[in-house]
Amino acid sequence: MDSFNYTTVEGDRIDNLAQRFYGGMRGISILSEANPFVQLEAIFSIGTILIVPIIEVTQTVENQNLPPWKRLTP
Description:
The chain is α+β, with helices and mostly antiparallel strands and 74 residues long. The protein has a single domain (3-70), classed as Roll (Membrane-bound Lytic Murein Transglycosylase D, Chain A), CATH 3.10.350. It has helices spanning 14-22, 27-34, 61-64; strands at 3-7, 49-53. It has a two-stranded antiparallel ribbon with strand order 1-2. It is elongated and about 40 Å long.
């Protein structure tokens, strides 16, 4: 799986990084699984290095039932 390293800056939190990199809160589990030795705190210490997996977005059956303006596009 492809990934990149991200060095945290002041104010970085797991939820805002999940939103930034994955578009939502499901990114929290992606980040936590990729960084098992990093303590996932409310606010990261400046300079914490995180592994950020690159995932491919695919349409799901549920996505096809949504109106066009709410569908995720790959």
